[in-house]
Specification:
Blueprint: H1 2-27, H2 35-55, H3 60-98
Amino acid sequence: MAEFAEAVMVICFGISWPVSILASYTARTAKGRSLIFLFFIFFGYVAGIVSKLISGNITYVFWFYVANLILVSVDMGLYFRNKRLDRLAAQENQQQALE
């Protein structure tokens, strides 16, 4: 039962990542996003994976941790893409202001 509850928790967290990824992708800005938050979530999933590996308790729940880690990594990648887009937009606005 404990493993089932853990799976439900990880799945519920996992459902939110595609929504976050879509929002990051379509917003095309890093404004309102926290890289520190994403890093804490990332390392939390890493800790969950390491815990499963150390305990030797590799079950289906392990794969949900891995999937979530991949999704958080995608969202982090989009954060850096959006930061770059923010910088380019700021440079473009500066150029237009000088003209």
